[in-house]
Amino acid sequence: MNNLFPPELRTASVVQRWSIVRTFQPDSVSNHSFFVTFYALQVARLVNWAGPYADLSFAALLHDAEEVFISDIISPVKHAILDDGKYANYVSEQMKLRLPLVEAQLGAIHDSRWGSNIERIIKVADKVDAMIFLTIEQRMGNTVLAPLWQDARENLWQAWVDLAVEINMQSEHSIQVWDDEIWPAIQAH
Q1: Which of 77, 90, 72 is nearest to 19 (CA)?
Q2: CATH number of domain containing 137
Q3: Residue 18's closest CA among 132, 176, 163?
Q4: Total domain count for the chain?
Q5: Torsion angles phi and psi, residue 154, rounded to 5
Q6: 146 sits in which H/E element
């Protein structure tokens, strides 16, 4: 039976992010997903994306849906997984089993002509959320996260460059948007 209201999604509010570092403020998958959705819409507008904003919003809101059953796997572990294919297959099978309606909708978006743009926009938004979270933590006096901040900045920059290449944004314009819009908005936190 396909549950129209999957109970697993309710756990997104208690699945902790940043679980192996000391933070002053807690963060959860649902909190993160809310901000990534908002930031994805802003990124799409910055790059004058003409794709379907409803699909972008849905995909952004549920971009980490699998974390309701596998938790938030920390980046060093995720990057050290030897077989990305097996991991992706496991997540896909679990999504089909546990959240079939969500998986079907996300699959349709992924397979659409806008799929790769949507994924890149969401990746930038995801990295923006990490930068803002770390910036706020540092401003509150959390120096433990300082090494993560520089890595997060580099990851965000690379995601931005990848998006700009994907949508054929001129390099000069991409840098100008970064310097005039994205970076100042993050620093304002």
Answers
A1: 72
A2: 1.10.3210.10
A3: 132
A4: 1
A5: -65, -40
A6: helix 146-166
